[in-house]
Design goal:
It is globular, with a radius of gyration of 15 Å. The protein is mainly alpha-helical. The relative contact order is 0.21.
């Protein structure tokens, strides 16, 4: 598996003259204007209230078209090529489905 640690991300952000986002900044960017748990091109959806394993959100969209989730057809373990799934309304790719999201508070 390919992994990047929080310390590596922090070092890179500092090197390029930036900082990691706060958790609130990351959530705002990822949700792209929706109050739902996941942004979709239909306005946003939540996971249904069910114990069954499903990738269909409450707005009818398949979560796997927006993020990398395992185990699915689109996501074996390991690194993924960026910007291959659908971007959100902010034009940001790969905002869902990460094993870990790094923000300033993850230290």
């Amino acid at each position: 598996r390919n992994c990047v640690t929080w310390a590596q991300m922090k070092t890179f952000a500092t090197w390029v003259g930036a900082d990691l986002p706060s958790e609130a900044e990351w959530e705002y960017a990822a949700r792209a204007g929706t109050a739902a748990a996941f942004w979709t091109s239909n306005g946003g959806g939540n996971l249904p209230n069910t114990s069954a394993s499903t990738y269909t959100l409450t707005d009818g969209f398949d979560l796997r078209t927006y993020g990398w989730y395992y185990p699915t057809y689109n996501s074996p373990y390991g690194s993924k090529e960026v910007a291959t799934l659908i971007p959100n309304d902010n034009g940001l790719y790969d905002m869902s489905g990460k094993a870990e999201i790094y923000s300033r508070i993850n230290s």
